[in-house]
Amino acid sequence: MPRHRGTFNPENPEPYELSRGKIENFIKCPACFWLERAKGVKFPSIPKFNLNTNTDTLLKRDFDKYRGKGPHPFMNANGLDHLQPFDHPDKYYWERSLHFGMNDSHFSVVHEKTNIRFGGGLDDVWEDMDSGKLHIVDYKSTANLSADPKPVSLEGHWKNSYKRQMDMYQWVLRAKGYEVDDTGYFVYVDGQHKDIEGMLDEDSEKATMIFNTSLIVYEGDDSWVEQALIDAKSCILNSECPEHAQTGFGMKGEDPCEYSTLFEGMKDNGINI
Predict the structure, then answer these.
(1) Distance CA 272, CA 212 (A)
(2) Which domains does the chain carry?
(3) Which of 44, 174, 199, 219 could form a disulfide with 207 if both were Cys (CB 3.0 to 4.6 A apart)?
(4) Residue 75 DSSP SS3
(5) What is the pLDDT of residues 163-192, one digit of tens each?
């Protein structure tokens, strides 16, 4: 049987593939999730942020130099000299988010109650050299544009998805049979501009941006993840579209789903497509 992904096919017995991002979509708005997964409605895609992707790639290379060999200097500087970047033969596959459903070497598991293959793509895993426990690590990059930039944090409604991402990845790694610590880490790089005169190098064909680095500790809780999978499968099997989320969007989380606003505006103006 071919892989079961995209629009749900109730006749296909293969595990249905749902990524971490799709479960996040379900949490944010069940209606949009249902339209896409149950009915095959194609929503506009979000542009890729190549600069963020490049910072992830470079951070991976930094930690790869110490993988399985001991703590990276960044770990030492943050009081984590008991950790080291985890070395595992499947680590390469764990990082491939677009191929998570191909086989069990990738970062995914089959949830038997729902027959959902659930997974994603990891940034990194650090290992406690004393206990053997593993810590999920996520790389983040940003650039604060305010006149007086503040240190990065996990505060803010829109960063709740970062926390849920960590919870979900802890759940997957545990389901794969590993002993995972509740403590996860966000490695943040923050592009700076205050009191910096420019970025062009002496070699005019190159430029340099200065980033501040931060380590944010997060105590995960994956107790909600299994129920989210059950609820997502139930949503897909529903014959009717659920209600669009009326909160959870916007910078403060007080706005309704954007598509709900769009559809209601079309209805109010007698527009049928």
Answers:
(1) 50
(2) 16-242 (3.90.320)
(3) 199
(4) helix
(5) 999 999 999 999 999 999 999 999 999 999
